[in-house]
Amino acid sequence: METMTSAGKVDSSFLKEVEKRSGEKLSLCYQCLKCTAGCPTAPYMDFRPNNIVRMIQMGMRKEVMESSAIWFCVYCQTCGTRCPNEIHIGILMDTLREMAMEEGFHAKEKNIHLFHEAFIHSVGRGGRAHEVTMLMEYMLKSRDLMADSLFPGVILFLKGKFPLLPSLVHGKEEIKKIFERCTKEK
Ligand code: SF4
Ligand code: SF4
Fold first, then answer.
1. Are residues 121 and 143 in the same domain?
2. Among 120, 130, 179, 184, which residue's beta carbon has the most beta carbons within 10 A?
3. Can you give the residue range of the structural domain that contains 169?
4. Mutational test site, ligand 2, from 77, 83, 92, max ligand atoms within 8 Å of CB
5. Can you give the pLDDT at residue 9?
C-alpha cells in the first residue's frame, strides 16, 4: 500500500532516505523496463526491479523491505548499464538488504538473510568469498544441516572447484579497513 501524508500526497520520506543511502537517483525512473528486461534473476523475483523502484517512489517501505526481490539480485550490474538514467539497481538492492537487516525485516524465505550475512562475513574476513566457510556459517546459523546448497556444494568440492582453504588475497588489511569504516558510518 502506498503511504500518504495527511495532505493526501504520497509520502516521499522513504524515497529520500533510500536515495541518500544508495546514492541512486530513483526519482528519475520513468518505468521504461529496460532494467527488468535484462535482469537474469527477474523471473524468480516476487517484484521485478522496475517494480521495486516504483514501490519506493510510492513510499511502500514494508512491502519493499519484506520482498524476496531484494535478496535475489546477484549484482551483475546489467540493469545499471541498460538504464537510460544510469540507475544502478544492484547498488539499490544492496542498500535495501542492509536496511532490511538493520530494521529486522525478513523475506518469506526465512533464512535468506543469513546466506547474505555469511557472504559479507566471508569477504570481510578474507578479502573474497570462501565458499566452504561461508556454507558452514550459513548451516550453523540457520540450523539447516541439510541446506539446499549442501549437495551441489559437495559435488563442486569433490571436483576441486571449492578449495578447502581460502586463497591468498593481497590488500586484506585495506579491505578490513573498508569494512570497519562502513560499520562506523552506519
Ligand atoms: S531502466 Fe532505469 S528508468 Fe527504466 S525502469 Fe529501470 S530504473 Fe527505471
Ligand atoms: S544487478 Fe541485480 S537487479 Fe540488476 S540486472 Fe543484475 S541481478 Fe538484476
1. yes
2. 130
3. 110-186
4. 77
5. 76
